[in-house]
Amino acid sequence: MPTISMNVNGISVSAEVENRTVLSTALRENLGMTGTHVGCDTSQCGACVVHVNGKAVKSCTMFAVEADGAEVATIEGQAHSDGSLNVIQQAFQDHHGLQCGFCTPGMIMTATALLRDNPKPTETEIRDHLEGNICRCTGYQGIVNAIMAASGQKPAIAAE
Amino acid sequence: MAADGGMGHATKRREDVRFLVGRGKYCDDYVPAKTSYCAFARSTVANGKIKSINTKAAAKMPGVVAVFTGDDFVEVGGNPAGWLINSRDGEPMKEPKRPVLAHGKVRHVGDAYAAVIAETREQALDAVEAIEADIQELDAVVNMADALANTKTLVHDEIGTNQCFDWGWIEDNRAATDEAIKNAPHVTTLELVNNRLVPNALEPRCSIGEYDPGTGDYKLTTTSQNPHLTRLLISAFVMGIPENKLTVHAPDVGGGFGSKIYHYGEEALVLAAAKKLNRPVKWTSTRTEAFLSDAHGRDHVTKIELACEKDGTFIAFRTETMANVGAYLSNFSTATPTFLHGTLMAGNYTVPNVYVNVKAVFTNTAPVDAYRGAGRPEATFSLERVIDKAARELGINPIEIRRKNFIKPDQYPYASAAGLEYDSGNYDALMDGLEKLADISGFEARCKESAKNGKLRGLGINSYIEACGIAPSNLVGVLGSRVGLYDAATVRVNATGNISVMVGAHSHGQGHETAFPQIVADMLGVDPMSIEIVHGDTSKIPFGMGTYGSRSLAVCGSAVFRATEKIIAKATLIAAHMMEDKPDNVDFDAGEFSVKGTNKKVSFGEVALKAYIPHDFPLESIEPGLEETAFYDPANFTYPSGAYGCEVEVDPETGKVDICSMVAMDDFGTVVNPLIVTGQVQGGLAQGIGQALLEHGIYDENGQLLSGSFMDYAMPRADDLPNLVVDHSHATTCTHNPIGAKGCGEAGAIGSPPTVVNAVVDALQRGGFDVEHIDMPVSPARVWAAMNE
Ligand code: FES
Ligand code: FES
Description:
The complex is a heterodimer of chains A (160) and B (789).
Chain A lengths: L2 E6 L2 E6 L6 H8 L18 E4 L2 E4 L12 E3 L13 H8 L9 H14 L5 H7 L11 H10 L10
Parallel strand pairs in A: 1-5
Antiparallel strand pairs in A: 1-2, 3-4, 3-5
Chain B lengths: L15 H5 L15 E7 L5 E7 L1 H4 L4 E6 L35 E2 L5 E7 L2 H9 L2 E6 L6 H6 L13 E7 L4 H10 L2 E9 L11 E7 L4 E6 L4 H12 L7 E4 L15 H13 L3 E4 L2 H7 L6 E9 L5 E13 L26 E10 L13 H19 L3 H8 L8 E2 L5 E2 L4 H11 L5 H10 L3 E10 L7 H6 L8 E7 L5 E5 L8 H13 L6 E4 L17 H28 L6 E4 L2 E4 L5 E3 H9 L14 E6 L8 E10 L6 E11 L6 H20 L30 E4 L19 H20 L13 H8 L2
Parallel strand pairs in B: 1-12, 10-11, 14-15, 20-21, 27-28
Antiparallel strand pairs in B: 1-5, 2-4, 2-6, 3-5, 7-15, 8-13, 9-10, 9-12, 13-14, 16-17, 18-26, 19-20, 19-25, 22-23, 23-24, 26-27
Helix pairs in contact in B: 9-18, 14-15, 15-16, 17-18
The structure holds FE2/S2 (inorganic) cluster (2 copies).
């Protein structure tokens, strides 16, 4: 079995994986980082989104061996070093952007990539950008509001 | 009163923090030492005779430790239906056995007939491919009318029919309703389909079985909305494991919407396998398996008639429904189309005659059971569509025809013609609120704007009532329930004043860890953050029935309230002892006990400490400790209600529907946490809009699920939905539970589908198209076809 080495959230790690092992499985099962979730088997739900070399990718669509040597960022590495929530995470809590929490890691990673590329997105741009992330719980309203707020804009519908 | 964070406060959810940093712990995140992995062989045909299953090659595959087939479970019991429904002629419903693994026959695509346990998940999946099953494909019954007409092709040969039951509600009202309709000045008839939905909680099901040969204890870690109910089903019906030898633990659960209420065969299998192999056995569903084997929702075909006076006064509703139960009876499948549907068929209205006939039908499809709303969305859709059609035929404004027939605030308690007693409500106030918030008076102007852009604009109005807070045990017992539907809570005040609250309800996104402490904090005058909720683990919590039917707050929250009252009563005795006065002279307010008319006081924290250090207690009158349990059984259902409004634009070129606005005006009674309630409604609205426009669990005539993945089954995405405007300020309190709460979890999914379809039909009518109805999902193809017929 091939051995891969990656830098995950700033820490060098290595794992033995099968050629067919996808990155989401390597993170969850080989490395025990269960913050990244798997919600489908057709690359549709986005629960598994992580950043590989700075780009948001669905980690279920990428073989772990392809991530050999890569910088990977996952949900576990997003909070401030003192453990407090970062701006986007805090906005999700403030605006009730999560219920069961299962889509949340993917949503946060997707939102993070969006705001890096487009720091002041419109609501329509946010909704378009979330097209690859399914949330079954929130109706997306809290998520859209949270991303608006995290980008320093007032959501059209204010959270109470 | 708690200074901050008590009842009514929009407290941020404390559980969010662990979810936001990736430290939630869902079932699939657990990997006990020496875990082995399970994969299932599932039928690829909808109806088939199992002639042989050869597992020899599979057993020799790398890493395989065991292979099971239906033969291994013939001695084991079946997964039962929780409600016994009797047909109109008094015959009990047909209850074919639902085995752990299919035996003799497979009955739907996805029906599991064998299981492989291996060292890794991949090895188990590989070995499933090596199972040689000789399954003779038989004709399948998929369409309900065909299933009833065809007595040659049977889902269950041993029952001789595909009809599970033929139920009438209320049978004694049948003749009067028929008569009223015969003599009515106007009768509006509508035939409609309530489309099959796949719940698709984002977390797939997962179960881990463990067995300790030293103690004989079993443990099941599983994705469940109700761990005690699952334990009861496994213990009493399926496997016979004594309850005190089985722990069921549901950790963080990633959504359920009904689909994780039920006990499934996979749970029994991993327990049996764990015992046999003496090591943990884990199964995690793929999304494909979820589509094929989770209980689906809805799937009714209905004819409804509304008889009324020419002025729009309702005289009677009569409904004939075929309800699909799929290939096997799932646990609540017989209650959903009957008592959760038929009893709501008077809606919010003073209609004197209601009769409902429901035929439940077995088909070679996945089992159908309660999905968010469960029967009530079906009832609301039928009623509110036929009312809209009647309004149009009679030339009455859709808001006016509803107002004309609303039960008025001074008519409560109101005995509905469908057999329920509504305790409170104010439907006119909700409609007033909707008209204002949705700016209904500005609609015509917006309609003209849309027309300028070549779009047809429509307005959809809807009012709904639901029966929640499920449910009064005495009532449901009479109606055929085989379980009670109370809930339970234990409040344990620890010696240093922090509090653990063990509850029977289990959050799968509802925010119990935040909302329940708000109740206790409010009553005890303590910091909510000093209160911790314990849930999901049968070894820690009292026997409660779990979370579904918008019941957590109304039923389990009431148990929390009652247990906290007992805490106050006990603490008052201790405080009186400490202040050397009579309990009757002691007041409790804002976390402090005081003796009336004196300045003697002790804090709640001092009393808590004293309870555990009872050096000077009069032990004949005060026991040490401060821990109380309450079981709460509701006196009635609760009756949330609402008025919803939706505006759509239809593109006449393509038939595409865009939702411009969606406003939900709900009455949930007392609201404990408005932030959570708003989120619950928004989530329900998204699922309802999904049903109306996008989602369809569709089988072809051979019983193959055509929409069996997220590529084919259109889940609502962020860009499919409008801003969801929610208001719950027009509340009337529930009169019979101590909190006054009615429940909010299902409302959005109940109220929104007819609102959307009413709006689409309105848009087409205004555009000059003679379209009476379009079945859901109202896809561009269906709209276009309706316009071009
Ligand atoms: S798990 Fe990767 S997209 Fe669904
Ligand atoms: S919060 Fe449950 S899927 Fe998004």
